[in-house]
Amino acid sequence: MQTATKTDLITFNNWTLRVRQSTIENPKVLLMIHGITGDENSMWVFGRKFSTSYLIIAPRAPFIAQPFGYSWRDVEKYPLQTDFGMPALHMLESSADDLIRLVDEYTTSLKIEANQFDVVGFSQGAAMVSVLGLVHPYRIRKMAVLAGFVPSGLDEYIAQKPLADKNVFVAHGTKDETVTINRAHEAVNLFQQAGADVTFVEDEVGHKLGSNGMKALEEFLQY
User: What is the CATH number of domain 8-220?
Assistant: First the structure.
């Protein structure tokens, strides 16, 4: 599989992005969403091997996190202590809407069609992927949830089976103490309830993506 490693750090409509342009004229679009305390550089440990058929967009989250980095939830409005760091839908929904708008505006600026796009997220970023897929299913083609979880507050969306005929990838470490493996099992069950065809991979690792998960993720995004 042909890959490309050159990325560009840009500012676009008040967003800080790291992007990798595609080598083809009408590329697929892949949005990569970092976890809490991450930034626009964090997800490239995964993205460096993804196909050049993708235009890849990795944005910096809008809120400051502690002790460093950025967050998709406003931690001043919704302190982490209130829910042990596991945000609910209402804490992430505005960021999800903003990400949809970002993809639309950036791809329009490049004259690229992105009525549907793929999305990969890690940890809190994976929770964002869950929100995007369940709340905006008509915009998402494929979704990958890495070391993440499904936020609370999505039951009504899940009941409508918004992920029918969609492919969802879930990878998790059995030794993850930040987001425990039972949260991944719960996510798989919820995605299946929502109608998704789920690929699930476990590795004997902590809060990161293992080698089996990385290989399976690359295969998942090849088609």
Answer: 3.40.50.1820
